[in-house]
């Protein structure tokens, strides 16, 4: 049984930093591409970032490039999202995602996600 458990969300002021974590179990973590998506109220879920199984390849949405960093620790079966210089428009529920294929995750986004976490709320006040 695959489980993805996010943590680290919260309420912060604009310009602050926050780090999200996602602990995975029940899958061969080092062979699984991991990603982060987010969904703001009234909006569709959107792609934020992804990282390959080895951690050697990453990709970001233009809206977060240069401010967010995705990383992983395969020894701990955990993926992280370091978020710097947060803006009010970053406010959303952030979801951890697992996908067997890095390419599929990059090309097809949420439609090819195999497993989702339950989400963690990030609220950025102005």
Question: Summarize this, please?
Answer:
With 126 residues, the chain is mainly beta.
Q: Helix and strand layout, with pairings?
A:
Layout lengths: L2 E5 L2 E4 L4 E8 L7 E7 L6 E6 L6 E3 L7 E6 L4 E6 L8 E8 L2 H7 L6 E2 L3 E6 L1
Parallel strand pairs: 2-11
Antiparallel strand pairs: 1-3, 3-8, 4-5, 4-9, 5-6, 7-8, 9-10, 9-11
Can you describe what's shown?
- With 126 residues, the protein is mainly beta.
- Helix content is 6%, strand content 48%.
- The protein has one helix and eleven strands.
- The chain has one helix at residues 102-108, and strands at 3-7, 10-13, 18-25, 33-39, 46-51, 58-60, 68-73, 78-83, 92-99, 115-116, 120-125.
- The strands form two sheets. Strands 2, 4, 5, 6, 9, 10 and 11 form a seven-stranded mixed β-sheet that branches. A four-stranded antiparallel β-sheet has the order 1-3-8-7, with no helix packed on it.
- It is globular.
- The mean pLDDT is 96.
């Amino acid at each position: 049984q695959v489980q993805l458990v996010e943590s680290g969300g919260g309420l912060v002021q604009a310009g602050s930093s926050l780090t999200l974590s996602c602990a995975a179990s029940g899958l061969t973590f080092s062979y699984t591409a991991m990603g982060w998506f987010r969904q703001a109220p009234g909006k569709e879920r959107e792609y934020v970032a992804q990282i390959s199984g080895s951690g050697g390849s990453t990709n970001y949405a233009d809206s977060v490039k240069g401010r967010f960093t995705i990383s992983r620790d395969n020894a701990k079966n955990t993926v992280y999202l370091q978020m710097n210089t947060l803006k009010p428009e970053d406010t959303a529920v952030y979801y951890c995602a697992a996908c067997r294929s890095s390419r599929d995750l990059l090309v097809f986004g949420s439609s090819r996600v195999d497993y989702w976490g339950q989400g963690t709320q990030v609220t950025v006040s102005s």
